[in-house]
Input
Amino acid sequence: MNYFAHGMRFVDRPYYLVGTALPDLLSVVDRRVRLRIKNVTPFTEDDSTIQSEVASGIQQHLEDDHWFHSTQGFLETSTDLSLLFRKLFADDEYARVGFLGHIVTELLLDGVLMDQNPGLIDQYYEAFDQIDPLKIEQATNKMATRNTDQLKLWLGHFSKEGFLRDYLDSQRLLVRLNQVMKRVKLQTLPVETISILKTGRRIVEKRLDDLLPPEHFESQLIERKQL
Output
């Protein structure tokens, strides 16, 4: 799961929502900073504080990732996308097609969820505008494996940039995907990738209930379009 899928159910709880974004955001801010469930859980007990809301959001993210990556829907969808990338990189045995199948499944899922819930991405970013970035950073440093002084700056950048909206369009998504590829020091993806993204989007739309089983994901909070 990616940012929007993790947080879309919690737009009415800004600090909790930001907590759901922190494990992924910290991988951009400082990859050396880690949030472990054993360090986070003790801070979730008092639900009346910013600290507990942030901790509970982080816990939500970690629990979501655990079940999501174990679903048949994710395993099959990411494999389908990996095979499409394998055809694209038929002459490159070193291409990280498994990584691409994994990450593209998650990014496309965010795009499909935004498309099927008009206006919710605006509420998502509005929630970020309601938090105090310094308090988020302070709360995070109490739970992380090491401290960071960069998080408060990146929280503002994340909200201002609004890059999740680009996942709705295959061309703009390719630009964002290549930013990820550059960050992890992998080869830039060619323009032919757009065709894979369009095909992948249709696959994700069809497998949505398999990717987000109702026993794990509160589907009643999502107003889905009739496909």
